[in-house]
Amino acid sequence: MRRALSVPLFCVVLASPLALQSPAYALSSQAGQLTVTPMADGFQTPWAVGFLPDGSFLVTEREGRLWRVTPQGQRHQITGLPEIRVGGQGGLLDLLVPRDFVETGEIIFSFAKPQGAGEGTAMAIARLSDDRTRLENLRLLFEMAPGSSGGRHFGGRIVEAPNGALFLTIGDRGNPDTSQDLGNHNGTVVRINRDGSVPSDNPFVSTAGALPEIWSYGHRNAQGATLDGDGNLWLNEHGARGGDEVNLVRAGANYGWPVISCGRHYSGAKIGEGTAKEGMEQPALYWDPSMAPSGMAIYTGDLWPAWQGQMFVGSLKFDYIARLDGDPLGTTPLTEAERLSARETARVRDIRQAPDGSLWFISERRGTVYRVAP
């Protein structure tokens, strides 16, 4: 059953206004008072953050820049990125620091790759130099089938599966009907091996006319994705006017766009055939009106035991972080239990759990990376 959210259930506010010269800010929540600390600011359209073992962290800017911020707060630009098509919603997007970084020194990132007159979502891997200033041995792992343009709906979130395979979300690129066509990558989640090859157990490897990288399809524009504690892939995706969704992603499943949706076109016109159809998946939760979901994390740390297993989703439109509670794989439906809302949560683009169990988020509008701790 589709579960709609139309009004905030809880509202959380800052105890005092943010002042960038201050070290931290108090934020009330149902788990007690939180401390929000700005870790780095001054970014232009920051998109993703990733943590390095030495305590430094990486930040991507959609404008095509990659930064390393030291534990002392010094910021250095990393060179060696490939050619990136910057425009509209496209540019340098997500960032993954794999689990074996200590051994390999490799990072993985997604970006809008030039494809003639158009551009497409792509994923590359490179080694971060020992002095952490440049990328070395850059290799392209994947690029979506060419033929899309328009500068929108790139998706771009990367998730490392428990076995080391890589998931990448790809939006419909503004061409909704193509999300139902297995002959292109629009509106899909793809799954590839770390070397760029196709896993032999991908669901459409033996399907005539289907691209073998496809793991699931019928998506509109998934900009948040993560694993739960059992290794299941979850994502959030943008609807049109209403119908933003949270989905459990199953191999070979069709998530319905644009045949079914709980939203409407921006014109107000009806989308597709209704809200359900045999053979198409139902979301675990949907929002109406749209909140424009982006970053997503499922908490597994020890700082907030009551939050373990719960989802956190950033809103680009309404400037808050949603805490989702429930057991969507069991008998308890997924619901929005709390809205963490403050001046700092302005257009939340990314949310990550840090190695120490704190939660970090990017405010795209404020150009700042924040850390949340008790």
- Spatial order of the strands forming the largest sheet: 1-19-18-17-16
Number of helices: 1
Q: Give a short account of the largest sheet.
A: 5 strands, mixed
Low-confidence stretches: 1-22
What string gives the helices and strands in order?
Answer: EEEEEEEEHEEEEEEEEEEEEEEEEEE
Strand content: 35-45%
What is the CA–CA distance across the termini? 35 Å
Account of the 3D structure:
With 374 residues, the protein is an all-beta fold. Helix content is 1%, strand content 40%. The chain has one helix at 101-104; strands at residues 4-5, 25-27, 34-40, 46-51, 57-61, 65-69, 75-78, 92-96, 106-115, 118-128, 135-143, 158-160, 166-170, 188-192, 214-217, 222-227, 233-237, 244-249, 285-287, 293-298, 311-315, 321-327, 332-340, 348-353, 359-363, 368-373. It starts with a strand and ends with a strand.
Please render the helix and strand layout as text.
Blueprint: E1 4-5, E2 25-27, E3 34-40, E4 46-51, E5 57-61, E6 65-69, E7 75-78, E8 92-96, H1 101-104, E9 106-115, E10 118-128, E11 135-143, E12 158-160, E13 166-170, E14 188-192, E15 214-217, E16 222-227, E17 233-237, E18 244-249, E19 285-287, E20 293-298, E21 311-315, E22 321-327, E23 332-340, E24 348-353, E25 359-363, E26 368-373
Parallel strand pairs: 1-19
Antiparallel strand pairs: 2-3, 3-26, 4-5, 5-6, 6-7, 8-9, 9-10, 10-11, 12-13, 13-14, 14-15, 16-17, 17-18, 18-19, 20-21, 21-22, 22-23, 24-25, 25-26
Summarize the structure.
This protein has 374 residues and is an all-beta fold. The protein contains 1 helix and 26 strands.
